[in-house]
Structures
1.
Amino acid sequence: MVLSDEDSYDTKPRRKKQKSKAAAKSTGSMQKKGTLSGKKARGKRGVLKQLPEMPLDVLFEIFGQLHPLDLVHLTRTTKTLRSILLEESARGVWRQARVNVVDLPECPKDLSELDYTSLIFESHCQNCLSRKSQICWDFRLRLCGKCIESDTRYTTETSWISSCIVSVCPSALYGADSRHPKTYYLLKFLHENNKLYHTLDEEGRAEWKSTELKRFSEIRDHARRCDEWLQERADERTQMLEDIRIRRVNEIVKRLTDLDWGEVISARKYGIENHVLVSQKKELTERTWIKIHPSLIEYLQEQKEQIIAALHHKRVEAHVSLLEELHKSYALSKPINAIIPPVTSFFLFKPFNGTYHEHTRERRTDCE
């Protein structure tokens, strides 16, 4: 629709539509109910708005106490904070934040502090945001297997190029734990260096290879130190979670023992330790205990019945074994043509059947 000049420059205020009484009443009640929650929400959203108004030295002092990943998150909040943290004057803030992390390797010269922090601390693929990703130190990227396999910028085929060039090309090994690991190379680098390599003489090629090997040895040495640091952190976290699990198991066992289930737990200790509600890497809280307590009591009752059934079975087996020996001795003392009932028939007569039923009654009483 094309507006006329009169329509486009019309300054008269438009008349507002009047609300019906029912609509006005419902809106008013909603405003009364949501007044406090609305103010709180606006207050939370406006907290970071005041940060850029603070003096830079105070701001940098605060940021220097944070974890490097917190700084990455701050760069994604507002444009103002991002511009402040990415300025050259803020480099000291990133260095101080790295010092807060124990034994973290320094930032490489060819990476910004933001890129380095994101690469080493974040876990998602930088292409598709998948949680399963791997750091490609040569490519300075974190990628998942699907992305690097489908991306035409990377290749596994190097038969068409000299091995001298391939040896100094950025690469990434994927599927190291699988039966068919693959090494991916940067296709652009292969083409550019193949072209450059054939324009050089023998002396130039040797110098070029020496320079590239030195550069990549520095990159891979730093990558090795970073991988070792990441593995140490992973081992520490694994140990921490295992300590939490052990504390949880011990606390649950203690509480159940106080409820007179100690004998059952001792008889089937590994059963309670491996129970899905017990062997979790989470701290035990009162709320959790109240929630899982009935299920654990039910589980222990079942275990008790199984223990009593096993004891009963052992007693019966012992009696049957003794009876078989007596039956055999009795049979040998009789003539060959004597009629001797089988051993199973003895359970139909006293006192053998009485002994069996007595143990059965004892088992039922113990279960109850």
2.
Amino acid sequence: MVTFWRLARNFSNAKELKVRVNMLEDIAVVDSESQAKLLCSFRNLKRLQLEGMQKLNGKTAAVAVANMLSCCPVLRDLRLNLTMAHPDLDRSGKRGRCFLQEKYRRDLENSIRGFNNRRLEAMVSVQGDHDDDGDAKYDKLSDLPALSSGHVLDCLLSTLSCVRLQFRLETNIFELNLRSNFAAKLIKFFAQNAVVLKEMHIDEGNGKMCDHMNCKLEKWVANSSEKRKTTFAVLPLES
């Protein structure tokens, strides 16, 4: 951790930066005293790509993301390529890969079916907005403490207009246990707090459709409507 941040000071004037680490937790600076000593300012940085592995609950990985955002006051374009080991990858060799491929195929089919059903309901319904049990539980999705501590992140308020999120080898982010659902919590955080956001590109890593997320995001964005300065589109992530 110390070595990483000391080296990072050499790039304080960069306008574009790509950072690849083994584990995000390895570069997280948790306590405020260490943050004051180690963190630097990338005062000219406009584009940042951060790539690495993260543990299941994502709490310390969120600290690393918060650290980087706090160092980038004029950041415009953020890309996070995050990988989490899937528990089913413990299955050996080809059998494990085939299991995941079949599971993701079923996920995609279910996602398409659900999306088409909602479109049909919207066409024939004469009632107002309604919540189903699936949507209701996302209202209870907890925040990430490291990103919701009240510390002001300047780029979220004035410059961050594009966020690209890639989650690899993860189960359906809206079906994980809500207590450890780092991917969904991260999406929620940017949806609610990046107030000048114009585009959010998402790759869930298992073939899900971005359209399938919009019904979740609408609720999260509504909660930030008073401070939001722009509306944004949710789009698939292109490599």
3.
Amino acid sequence: MVNICASGGIIFSVVAVVLLAFGEIGQINTSVVTRHLRIVSVSTTGFGAAIAASDGAPPDAVKGVYNTGTLASANGTNAGLRMTYEWGLWNYCATNGGLGSSRSYCSKRQFGERFQPAKVLYNDLPVKYQGAFNASVPANVFRDDKYLGAFSMGAQYILFVGAILAALSMIVGLGSHRIAYLAGAIIAGLSFLCLAIGLVIYTIMISRVMKAVNGFKVADVAGGLHFTYGNGLWIMWAATGAIFFAIVPFLIACCTGRSSSIEDEPSKEEEY
């Protein structure tokens, strides 16, 4: 029989695993659920006007910046920007609508996905406007593909390990034994550390990009790029809190639970 306190640890672990699953599946395909989950997103709605301003032209003088086609197309083909880009942990998707709208395309999923927004936008932008992109967008952390790519890849690895440990903590905690409860607490603690480290990296990166790009201007015209935190990021932070709260019940169960499966069985001598 599972210790009552251990049950609390298991419940928190289950909550963490479920939340982590939602955080992990963001943008992995075009289904209704996954396309509404994201770690970070960017709107490019006003970027065409900023490109025009960089050439001293009126906003409507620049044509072909955006790909307004309704058919799905490949990424990185210089076919034009999309209005919204959304990143998950495994890939990113683009759409000509708002957040969660039908996808124009999704990049290939990969373990160790790199968050490199400037590179994504640059590769979608028509070649004739790439010079204007370099001239108008500030040369700061937003365009530092090496920094963003390396840290986002490392963060994804750490988060994946943290998610595996959370699931393992849930399974180990089912063992009706003090050692199992202690192991559950230790594994939950390791999971918390991994998740916290990975999410701190993502949160700081996104914060730096937002500070560097949101609000920048080109010749007194708004830059037109606006990054926002995604709901998937907060879901994973909630999962991190849940696995943290699993530690204490497991520790209490370790102190109050039985030390062996036959601890409470009476001896044959006592029966006579």
4.
Amino acid sequence: MLPRTLTVRGRQRTYFAELDIWQHFGDERRSLYFRHYNGGSLDKLIAHHRSRGRAVPEHFIWHVLLTLIEAVRFLKFGVSPDGKEAPEGWVAIHHRKISASNIFVHYPPQAEDEPDLGFEENAFPELVLGDFGDAALQTDQDTELGRRRIYNGFWDQPGVIADWHDTYSIFATAKHLASQIPPGELSLASEINDNLGVNERPYSDELIWLLQEFEWPNIEHFPAITDQQEIEGEMVPNYAHIQNMQWVIDHWLDDVRRHVQSYRNPDVNALPDRWWRRLDVSWTIPDPFMPYDYRETVVDAPNPPEGHECPVPNPMTQRALLGPILEAADNHPERQAHVLRCVEYQRPRVSEVRVPPDLPIPGPPGLPDPPVAS
């Protein structure tokens, strides 16, 4: 069973998308309803930054790297992100479809006004790995133990289970964040800083080095991980140059964790002014959708006329229409039962004014900000 909410380094974390409701239609069809994550997906966050001409801040990229390394370590080896060792007989799980479109962002609701420092959770939101539709167990490749169909995965390799699928995807996602160029298109880590906008903080040498670890010879001529090139008379696929997940854990996990902690728990007496506000990425939250029944022709008035009562939907009729979805949700141990409301007056407008923090985004406390162009 995938872990649900865990306490990791003193903070509540959810690593994998949580299934809330499922339906079985009596044949091979099923319908799955997952918990909603209010920050959208990583590719939407990238698109928001690109539309504003902004770079994704470095602290957030380290946060993504740490979350994905810990998540894939659990899938591969059963070691929980909270440090619990794998149960005996653990069978490796291969996600096979890790990408920015399948990683979701969530900002926990706040019960208080925002303090001057800001909210830490808006700088380091929860990151949730979803879409296990192409996942496979290690035993699925064994012709005796598993005969389950193995789908294409993100790298379009049906029937193949390989360590590099998930391992490389972690760093391809990080490079996608830094370069804003999708995996499969030519992107050189050494050129990322050359393409940043005015007053953007350059990415650190260590982040660039890490991204370069997952490039291969002649990448400028063979940019796709599944391309092949001739090396010493043999055709070698580019993924043959990718280190395995155990190497990542042994060589990089501690360093990645250290970088995240340099922002979240810096070795200073007091956090700098407006610290979390300056690192805030919550301005990329998609506009929320409010479920409502809007009736264009009923009443065109800002307020109900005196003596008018809004009609109450017939609960029995509505539940007959929605069927077991509402019943399953109402029986959820952590969620209040649904209440049906009529929204009859004016078109609901649900929006907030969100702006990105001022540039430059800070590095860890103690590092000076780069010069600001006038």
